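[Discussion] Sanity-checking designs against the backbone

I'm trying to build intuition for which residues belong where. Below is a structure token string of 140 positions. I'd appreciate it if someone posts a full sequence so I can compare it with mine line by line.
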């Protein structure tokens, strides 16, 4: 089953229960964040060894799986509400990360190192676009 079919199945399940009236973008965003918090709670205060245990323990793995399921369902529902194709938004994001990785390497060659994407983006505009080294339509 591809991701679009999966999204349709989630929306059909929701609509059969008339839950769509609750699924406005604000409440979906809140729900997505809450479910991400439930996933985070599994790992809260855990050492690296305990995290490794979670990856192998059947019961712990099931908890992670269930929270990921909640997150994915809300993410697919949110994408549906905005008429976004889930495949497209994932692939676009991967392309952006790939560009940032390449750009980070260029900036590193120029002696600039950033920990966050916002720093890379600011350097892109300041040092590469404003100076005319690359065209403005790269800046996004
Ligand atoms: Mg949950």
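Best answer:
Here's mine. Compare freely.
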């Amino acid at each position: 089953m591809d991701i679009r079919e999966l999204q349709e199945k989630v929306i059909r399940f929701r609509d059969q229960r008339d839950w769509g009236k609750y699924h406005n973008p604000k409440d979906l965003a809140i729900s997505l964040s809450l479910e991400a918090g439930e996933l985070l709670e599994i790992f809260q205060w855990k050492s690296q060894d305990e995290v490794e245990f979670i990856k192998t323990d059947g019961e712990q793995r099931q908890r992670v799986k269930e929270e990921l399921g909640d997150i994915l369902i809300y993410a697919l529902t949110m994408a549906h509400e905005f008429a976004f194709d889930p495949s497209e938004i994932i692939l676009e994001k991967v392309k952006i990360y790939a560009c940032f990785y390449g750009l980070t390497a260029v900036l590193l060659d120029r002696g600039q190192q950033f920990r966050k994407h916002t720093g890379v983006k600011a350097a892109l505009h300041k040092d590469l676009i404003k100076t005319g080294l690359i065209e403005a339509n790269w800046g996004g």
